[in-house]
């Protein structure tokens, strides 16, 4: 049967569990309710969040297609989140200069799940930037799903995308029975005033372990293909930098990140470097971690490597309102600034996914 998700999270009164009184159903029920709430909400973070450059002089963005045939313009991979069968999508888009024709079409599709979310003139698409949202069914193959952004116009007015957000949708019900990751939803296991079983407490422990194993995406970016402006089919050759949120008190501030890179290396071997630092400009002065990319890779080949970032100096107390660390990558690293291995050459990077579990 469906496991209902509490409409709002009510903090547990610790006195209910620490008074020394008999553990009755009313006392233990908040634990199961809290576990169900965590199952529905915990770890359901953004898995894609990307905006595209706005040119103030022309009023355009490079994520635009004018051709009257549908084509994939961007693609991302997202790591598996146990129990998730749908993702929630928000896109900001417009038609320039207008008006909207019957051929204008924006689609966000999933490769494995076969899901699709569409925006057309009938959806309200016009010459003003608007936000549109919907859901896409997903399925996991090898621990990943691939999300594609597809555009079609009418050869007269371009269809432009300004930004896209994909996040894990909140489930309307929780799955029955024990899941493959050990997680279990509660719907009556503690409803009677019976002795508290070891099985129930083991399930609570398993749930905590499963929640902690849910991935948190730090960076997920894609290049652009099949768009109006040429030269967008690889990440630009300058240093890209991000400040990534870190949770406090996690494994003494250590963190292991995983990296999945979509590359092609027409000139041979390449190098992708992630720098971490406690400096405000994310300069990478605190050290660097290299992800070596072998030669001969093509666009649809990914390289998976762990990136372990130490607690010093990757964590900082600078006043940015959060615990954070810096990630930076340079598609064409400068040997005068970076410790580039001998014999490496420029590497075309088409997409980068960085995620972790803490």
CATH class assignment of the largest domain: Mainly Beta
Radius of gyration: 24 Å
Which stretches of 5+ consecutive residues score pLDDT under 50? 276-288, 311-317
- The second-level CATH architecture of the largest domain is Sandwich
The backbone outline, from C-alpha atoms, is globular
How much strand content do the residues show?
A: 25-35%
Instruction: Average the pLDDT over all residues and give the rounded result.
Output: 77
The helix tally amounts to 4
What profile does the largest beta sheet have?
5 strands, antiparallel
Q: Can you describe what's shown?
A:
- With 358 residues, the chain is mainly beta.
- The radius of gyration is 24 Å and the shape is globular.
- Strands 1, 2, 4, 7 and 9 form a five-stranded antiparallel β-sheet that branches.
- Helix 2 (25-41) runs parallel beside helix 3.
- The longest helix is centred in the N-terminal third of the chain and has 17 residues, at 25-41.
- The protein has three domains: 15-43 and 171-212, no CATH class; 46-168, Sandwich (Jelly Rolls), CATH 2.60.120.260; 234-356, Jelly Rolls (Sandwich), CATH 2.60.120.
- The chain has four helices and 17 strands.
- It starts with 14 loop residues before the first helix and ends with a strand.
- 11% of the residues lie in helices and 35% in strands.
- The model is unreliable at 276-288 and 311-317 (pLDDT under 50).
Structure summary:
By secondary structure, the protein is mainly beta. The protein is 11% helix and 35% strand. It has helices at residues 15-18, 25-41, 198-212, 311-314; strands at 46-51, 64-65, 71-79, 86-96, 105-110, 116-119, 130-137, 144-152, 158-168, 216-222, 240-245, 255-264, 270-275, 288-293, 302-309, 324-329, 348-356.
């Amino acid at each position: 049967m469906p496991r209902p998700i509490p409409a709002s999270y009510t903090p547990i009164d610790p006195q209910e569990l620490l008074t020394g009184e008999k553990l009755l159903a009313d006392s233990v029920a908040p634990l199961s309710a809290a576990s169900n709430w965590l199952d529905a909400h915990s770890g359901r973070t953004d898995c894609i969040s990307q905006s595209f450059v706005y040119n103030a002089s022309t009023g355009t963005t490079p994520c635009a297609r004018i051709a009257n045939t549908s084509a994939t313009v961007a693609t991302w991979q997202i790591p598996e989140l146990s129990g998730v069968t749908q993702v929630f999508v928000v896109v900001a888009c417009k038609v320039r200069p207008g008006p909207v024709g019957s051929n204008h079409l924006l689609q966000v599709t999933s490769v494995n799940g076969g899901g699709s979310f569409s925006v057309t003139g009938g959806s309200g698409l016009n010459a003003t930037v608007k936000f549109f949202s919907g859901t896409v069914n997903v399925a996991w193959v090898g621990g990943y799903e691939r999300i594609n952004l597809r555009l079609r116009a009418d050869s007269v007015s371009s269809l432009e995308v300004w930004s896209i957000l994909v996040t894990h949708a909140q489930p309307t019900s929780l799955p029955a029975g024990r899941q493959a990751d050990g997680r279990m939803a509660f719907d009556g296991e503690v409803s009677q005033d019976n002795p508290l079983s070891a099985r129930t407490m083991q399930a609570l422990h398993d749930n905590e372990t499963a929640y902690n194993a849910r991935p948190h995406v730090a960076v997920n970016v894609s290049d652009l293909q099949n768009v109006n402006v040429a030269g967008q089919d690889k990440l630009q050759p300058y240093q890209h930098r991000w400040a990534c949120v870190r949770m406090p008190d996690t494994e003494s501030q250590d963190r292991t990140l995983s990296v999945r890179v979509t590359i092609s290396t027409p000139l041979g071997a390449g190098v992708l470097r992630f720098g971490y630092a406690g400096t405000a400009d994310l300069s990478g002065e605190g050290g660097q971690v290299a992800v070596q990319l072998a030669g001969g890779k093509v666009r649809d080949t990914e390289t998976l490597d762990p990136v372990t970032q130490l607690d010093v100096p990757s964590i900082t107390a600078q006043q940015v309102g959060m615990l954070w660390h810096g990630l930076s990558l340079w598609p064409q690293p400068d040997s005068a600034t970076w410790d580039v291995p001998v014999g490496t050459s420029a590497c075309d990077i088409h997409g980068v996914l960085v995620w972790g579990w803490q």
